[in-house]
Amino acid sequence: MTDVVDSDELLRRIQRARACALQEERAWQTRSEELTATDPQGARDATVRRMSYEAVLTVLDEILTPGRHTARG
Fold first, then answer.
1. For residue range 33-63, what is the model confidence (pLDDT) as tens digits?
2. pTM of the predicted structure, to 2 decimals
3. Is 73 exposed, middle or buried, given 0-12, 13-18 or 19+ CB atoms closer than 10 A?
4. How far is CA 37 from CA 33, 42, 70, in A?
5. Neighbours of 25 (CB within 10 A)
6. What per-residue confidence (pLDDT) applies to 1?
7. What pLDDT is recorded for position 2?
8. Alpha-carbon span 21 to 51, nearest angstrom
9. Is the pLDDT of residue 20 over 60?
């Protein structure tokens, strides 16, 4: 079953998703920093997860504010 949502609801959902992704990115950044000295492999894994959330944030930011953010590379 498919629910139809209006543009305001869609915007709210995207904003909630962005807030969640930002929170997760920060959490994985902290975890990576904490593990660097004691668990290098765990720190690398945490960094990869942080980078994944960073990519999600970039996409959601582009949806919310097209053209405002420059491409990284």
1. 999 999 999 999 999 999 999 999 999 999 9
2. 0.81
3. exposed
4. 8, 10, 33
5. 19
6. 60
7. 78
8. 11
9. yes
Tokens 């959330």, located at residue: 53
Count of Cβ atoms closer than 10 Å to residue 55 Cβ: 13
Three-state SS at 73: coil
48 CB-side CA count, 13 A: 6
> Does position 12 have pLDDT exceeding 80, yes or no?
yes
Q: Choose among 35, 59, 60: nearest CA to 47.
A: 35
Q: What is the DSSP letter of 66?
A: T
Q: Which residue has the tokens 């053209």?
A: 67
CB 56 within 8 A of CB 38: no
